[in-house]
Amino acid sequence: MYREILTTKQTSFHCGVKVPRNFRLLEELEEGQKGVGDGTVSWGLEDDEDMTLTRWTGMIIGPPRTIYENRIYSLKIECGPKYPEAPPFVRFVTKINMNGVNSSNGVVDPRAISVLAKWQNSYSIKVVLQELRRLMMSKENMKLPQPPEGQCYSN
Amino acid sequence: MAENGESSGPPRPSRGPAAAQGSAAAPAEPKIIKVTVKTPKEKEEFAVPENSSVQQFKEAISKRFKSQTDQLVLIFAGKILKDQDTLIQHGIHDGLTVHLVIKSQNRPQGQSTQPSNAAGTNTTSASTPRSNSTPISTNSNPFGLGSLGGLAGLSSLGLSSTNFSELQSQMQQQLMASPEMMIQIMENPFVQSMLSNPDLMRQLIMANPQMQQLIQRNPEISHLLNNPDIMRQTLEIARNPAMMQEMMRNQDLALSNLESIPGGYNALRRMYTDIQEPMLNAAQEQFGGNPFASVGSSSSSGEGTQPSRTENRDPLPNPWAPPPATQSSATTSTTTSTGSGSGNSSSNATGNTVAAANYVASIFSTPGMQSLLQQITENPQLIQNMLSAPYMRSMMQSLSQNPDLAQMQNPDTLSAMSNPRAMQALMQIQQGLQTLATEAPGLIPSFTPGPPGSTGSGGPTGPTVSSAAPSETTSPTSESGPNQQFIQQMVQALAGANAPQLPNPEVRFQQQLEQLNAMGFLNREANLQALIATGGDINAAIERLLGSQPS
């Protein structure tokens, strides 16, 4: 049903133009399903029936030549009512050891991640995921020892 | 909002350019949908029935991407698709894209799988003697705990973890380095029950892809495997180590008889090349070489090959036992306690030779080697033939180019080796150090900085050592570069006791690491692991590194 609504809207993330939240999120939903990007991140609604388009799941494929290589990291992203004016809440589900991620519950600290700290309404879930992946490749993160694969945070 | 009027024919998300796609894509009615599968490297389109399951989808994908279905991980809209789900369940419609990650076996992973790996390796390497002893009588490989069974067993145990091959090779080396452990394992009732099940053993062997290739090339092998009598017999033998030794000896004798027949040597060589070489080469990656490499070298010199090449000899302990090095330097320093530089260097040389001597001694103690020696003494021509074989010659050449071997050519080394009393002293030292290792293993890692000091404080090695301790404290610092490195390697090897495969991987692969760095592989750890796994082979290491990344 969202798809009909989507067809009525053209995409544009022009700065300054305030795009209604749901339209934006629907667009991101479509992008997530179409696999826009290089295939190293993926995102979608956590629950397809979620009318509020609030809860999203994301997936980051660990970049090669890092300690995260070949691992698949699952995330939960929550787009609040003020999205896209306000940044989403991002939390890792799969355990990870990385700067800016709380090691006990996987919450991504918005002050530590630049796209979240300096959020712009043209940013999107894709941007957040790609930025997190880019951070995995940074010198400070790429060799951090990681917990065994497949472990998840308990909350 | 402006384009409110733009209605959509098919109920699909479609914008301007996508409209064409929308019309090209069939409406939901027909069963076949086109789904794009995207990996970080490539992208393929698949036409599958709309109601197919993820499992079926994976099967189609695995053909196109040339991987196993269980290596595939499909992701859609941020969720991992499980095999029992359907595409519809996840809302995968026509024209949408699914992400694919192909897992490779050698993923760096947590060590939690290691214990299970250990158990697996134990049982499977117990299975290897059987797999080698029967079938091909030409395969009289006295050192032959080939890895084939091991590989098969592990894969059947479904361990796809960590540095798979490295873990495995480490485990097997550890196993083979300790005859007591081997005995324990063989006596383990579980192992015995497993061994007594010929079907299971056959499955284990067949599961190994290299074995499968071998079988394709040589159908006789499959006959052997399928013959239950032979299987039973080999299992009996495998369970009974004494009987196995007997069998080995018989085979060796038979071989030597064959050899004496005119033209027999050629026939033997042919058999080796056709059958045994592929089998042994199949083990190459793990064990770093043909066991016969070490046979040739051991009979010619005191074993100069790098430790990694010799791991598949079963009861042989660590080739370069480090403690002898440090101990010998301690004891010899008592004689030269004035601390002359030459005294130190000779003690270091002796240290090297100790390891060699130990290794030689331990080689000689294996039953296979004993039988070989027996034959050798009976028939000197045998050695001659072996050494003159073309394949042997090429091995020798590569051995002589081995930089480690250069240490063996040190004249001091040679003279020390030919001195029986020195050898004896070194043996004692080694024993002492082994005792130390068991009693105070904690001291051993500290050997590297100040070997004799810690040894002295350790104590159980004898008065000479402890008295030498203070005087020797200064000498290690004056060791020449390569010698110190060598000793460090040996110390590490003893301390490790489990992974004697590489004296000092970083040092050894220094050159290769630099090359990999220059090529753009910046992850030093991954490079090192790859180099270790491939035994220093840069090309294979590169393939490994490339193969294990998704992008």
Report what the structure shows.
- The complex is a heterodimer of chains A (155) and B (551).
- Chain A is an alpha+beta fold.
- Chain A has a single domain, classed as Ubiquitin Conjugating Enzyme, CATH 3.10.110.
- In chain A, 23% of the residues lie in helices and 15% in strands.
- Chain A has four helices and four strands; from the N terminus they run H-H-E-E-E-E-H-H.
- Chain A has helices at residues 2-7, 21-34, 114-117, 125-136; strands at 41-45, 55-61, 72-78, 89-92.
- Chain A has a four-stranded antiparallel beta sheet.
- Chain A starts with a helix and ends in a 19-residue tail after the last helix.
- Chain B is mainly alpha-helical.
- Among the domains of chain B are: 32-102, Phosphatidylinositol 3-kinase Catalytic Subunit, Chain A, domain 1 (Ubiquitin-like (UB roll)), CATH 3.10.20.90; 166-281, no CATH class; 503-550, Orthogonal Bundle (Helicase, Ruva Protein, domain 3), CATH 1.10.8.
- A five-stranded mixed beta sheet of chain B has the order 2-1-5-3-4, with helices on one face.
- In chain B, a hairpin with a 2-residue loop joins strand 3 and strand 4.
- In chain B, helix 8 crosses helix 11 (228-239) and helix 16 packs across helix 26.
- Chain B is extended, with a radius of gyration of 29 Å.
- Chains A and B meet through helix 1, helix 2, strand 1, strand 2 and strand 3 of A and strand 3 and strand 5 of B.
